[in-house]
Amino acid sequence: MSLPTEAQWEYAARGGRQSEYLWGDTLLEGGYYHANTWQGRFPYENTALDGFIGTAPVYEFLPNDFGLYQMIGNVWEWCRNPRYTLLASFNEDDYELPKYGIQDEEYAIRGGSFLCHCSYCNRYRVAARNGCISTSTSSHLGFRCLKE
């Protein structure tokens, strides 16, 4: 069992589509996402229009066309490759996540989280990339294992 590479994560998140967001190219009425995101004035007031102030249970939002839930929003998801990898030249066999000890390298994270808001974060696009130091922990950072 391992974490997906960014390419594997994006393929799974798209669910066979080539749209800007995993559900299509448009937002809900009022500019809302089909995902667990921050609603209201960030960072002062989360109105929780989606029903959640923090993380949401898995089945609260519709799955993508592959049957995967919450690929966008809720929590950022770790990927196996370093953040600044040129994806065109990435070879998944060249990278292993650190097992023990402190590491300074940033690894890729994808999908956005419940703390992302449209005023500063456009990470709900399936192609959006971000990174985080490998020793980071947070309530809006998680992982999804790759089924091999």
UniProtKB/TrEMBL annotation:
Its EC number is 2.7.11.1. It comes from the Bacteria. The keyword Aminoacyl-tRNA synthetase does not apply. It is an enzyme of class 2 (transferase). Residues 3-147 form the Sulfatase-modifying factor enzyme-like domain. The keyword Metal-binding does not apply. SUPFAM superfamilies: C-type lectin-like. GO terms for molecular function: formylglycine-generating oxidase activity; protein serine/threonine kinase activity. Keywords: Transferase. InterPro entries: CTDL_fold, Sulfatase_Mod_Factor_Kinase, SUMF_dom, SUMF_sf. This is Sulfatase-modifying factor 1 (C-alpha-formyglycine-generating enzyme 1). The gene is pkn1.
